[in-house]
Amino acid sequence: MALEVSVDADKCMGSGNCSFWAPGAFDLNDDGVAEVVDLDAVPEEKILLAAQGCPTQAITVTRDGQRLAP
Ligand code: SF4
Does the beta carbon of 59 sit less than 6 angstroms from any atom of ligand 1? Predict the structure, then answer.
């Protein structure tokens, strides 16, 4: 099962941590809000690190209905 990843735009403060930990998977849009770009760009561990490292816990990661992060 693939990871399901979402960014809560209301919680994102545009710190850029996620695109640092998982470059290519996340990027900031023109509004300075993170978006999921390509989850295959990095290993899953990096996605989880990015979600865990988000200062506002804006990134939710689930697999098969089970929450993995934050
Ligand atoms: S780490 Fe969190 S707050 Fe920072 S840009 Fe990514 S989603 Fe937004």
Answer: yes
Ligand 1 atom nearest the C-alpha of 7 is 7
Domains of the chain (ranges; CATH) run 4-69 (3.30.70.20)
Q: Taking phi first (over 0 means left), then psi (-120 to 50 degrees means alpha), and beta for anything else, what does residue 25 get? A: alpha
Structure tokens at 53: 């490292």
pLDDT, one tens digit per residue, over 3-52 is 999 999 999 999 999 999 999 999 999 999 999 999 999 999 999 999 99
Q: From the alpha carbon of 56, which atom of ligand 1 is closest?
A: 3
Closest to 15 measured CA to CA, from 69, 58, 65: 58
Please indicate, yes or no, whether the overall pTM of this predicted structure exceeds 0.90: yes
Position 18, amino acid: C
